[in-house]
Amino acid sequence: MSDRGTQSAGTRTGRRLGRVGAVLLLVAALAAVFAPLLAAHDPSAPSGAPYQPPSLSFPLGTDDIGHDLFAQLVYGARISLTIGVASAVLATAIGLAVAVVAGYFRGRVEGPLMRLVDLTLAFPFFVLVIVLAAFFGRSLLITVGVISAVLWAKPARVLYSDVVKVREFQHVTAARAMGASPLRVLGRHVIPRLAPLAVSQFVRTANVAVFLESALAFLGLGDPTNVSWGSMLFFANARSAFLTDVWLWWIVPPGLALTAVLVGFAFLGYAIEERADPRLSGRRARPGPRRRDAGSTAAEPATPQATGTVLEVRELTVRYRSEAHATEAVAGVSMAVAPGRIVGLVGESGSGKSTLALALLGLLRPPAEVLGGRIMLGGRDLRTLRGPEGARIRGREIALVPQGAMSALNPAYTVQRQVTEAAALTRPDAAAAAVRARELLEQVGIARDRHGAFPHELSGGMRQRVLIAMAVANEPRVIVADEPATGLDVVTQARIMKLLLDLRERLGVSVVLISHDLPLVARTADELLVMQAGRIVETGPPEAVAREPQHPHTRALLTASAGIRAASPAPRPVRGR
Ligand code: ADP
């Protein structure tokens, strides 16, 4: 698939962008540090005749009262960068402290703290910063304070999610169980794990902080005693630089310098984020060699990955037994799902896809019976897990996006309440579950004003998104999405597929994507398994399977889809067993 290429180039691009960003910031930092050596004049005092054109002594000329514009530019780097970096340090430190207190110690503070985070995030930050700056007055320290007071919430929210996750890691639980003090657990296990994410948050925050400092200075709300790029633009604008040619030296250089620093932080932030979260890069390793398995009941696990396998099914056989006869709905199926991969499982109706999905979650009920095989998730055989132990896995380790978005949601409750209930599985604190639910709904693209809606008030695509939000509510390692796009129009189908791809990118979750629509799955999955009459009959990279189907059943599925797409009057039926 074409996006596979872009993805692997994406990591290389990430590194390249990171280097460009670092160079841009280094140049600005050197200018700031060596400003007294680079500039021949005092930036704050007139040192030449007004409106001088660029010369050796005044490389960018002078303004209307004779200030050296080059001196202002290099000294301006000091203020812009100092305020940007200091505000980002303070905001990230506050964010980290809030994340640790709320996410690690939890208890009574978690709800109120996270509500404060949400409240701060909900405010339009630019308006808030202007109001605070206008209220508190103008000095460097106040600018830093105001900017960090507005920007701490984003790092707090991002780091909080990680603290909650890291807290439940087995080694962290073990350290706690062995009686390690909270400070020791935090210092040795939790904070070191957060460090890369904290650094990427710092860079992102620095980016916004530099922008906010310039914006405040441009609005005349900065420290009047110090020259920054924003204040250069403020004076240029206030003193009508545009009426003369001098705007070229007065406005363009600080504008470019500001752009370069903002781009520098953005590029560096992107590269660091990619490094901080290995799930964001290199996950879409090329699939293994393609293999055709025409009708064998014992397909080997599909393309095991160097990254390991999160879910592995071996020789699974499920039968429905009724008085009249027995149907082997799943007959010796084997498959493997690597971390962060999307495995598409396609087949005609009745081929056993839903039975396999239910088996993966341990949800089969009589008359279904599992005759043999293993379902390994994280080293445990799900088939042998019973009762509460099995229930612990569902939702937390593997979750289902069930078929039929309308029937899977309770019509009597708002979607917010249903997602909150899902999130409450791992969050005993009701407020934290509600906060997480709102966050999840936003992540899947349901606007805040729709959170209180009942299922029937939403479109089919939105209901499907709600189900996906519920499935990822407790950060499972695998989600099994059973026909998540069936019955939706093509545009909505594409959006749902994109959402699954986004979630995989952001959460590193693996997806078993079940559908009868081969072309749709082929566009999304990393690997395709074609199922017929309970068996995997063909496996391989989606583009290859779609281009050169080897098995007659795959060809029939493709022809049927093509027929439907082209509104052919007589699409060829797909034959079953
Ligand atoms: P798919 O999801 O691919 O449409 P299913 O897993 O629903 O396929 O069905 C596979 C086979 O199992 C079909 O032959 C179907 O008739 C049979 N089957 C499914 N559910 C039951 C059931 N509750 N009782 C008896 N047979 C069933």
Question: How would you describe this structure to a colleague?
Answer:
The chain has 577 residues and is α/β, with parallel strands linked by helices. The chain has a 7-stranded mixed beta sheet, with helices on both faces. 46% of the residues are buried. It is elongated and about 105 Å long. Among the domains are: 28-42 and 59-281, MetI-like fold; 408-475. It is built from 22 helices and 11 strands. Residues 1-10, 278-307 and 565-571 have low confidence and may be disordered. The structure holds adenosine-5'-diphosphate. Adenosine-5'-diphosphate (ADP) binds next to strand 3 and helix 13. Adenosine-5'-diphosphate binds at residues 320, 322, 327, 329, 347, 349-355, 367.
Descriptive tags:
seven-stranded mixed β-sheet; elongated; MetI-like fold; four-stranded antiparallel β-sheet; alpha/beta; binds adenosine-5'-diphosphate; 577 residues; 54% helix; disordered N terminus; 22 helices
Short description:
The protein has helices at residues 2-33, 35-38, 69-105, 107-122, 125-136, 140-151, 153-167, 170-177, 182-218, 229-238, 247-250, 252-276, 353-360, 387-393, 405-408, 415-423, 430-443, 460-471, 490-507, 518-524, 542-547, 552-565; strands at 291-292, 311-321, 326-337, 342-347, 368-377, 380-381, 398-401, 478-482, 510-515, 527-532, 535-540. The protein is α/β, with parallel strands linked by helices and 577 residues long. Among the domains are: 28-42 and 59-281, MetI-like fold (Orthogonal Bundle), CATH 1.10.3720.10; 408-475.
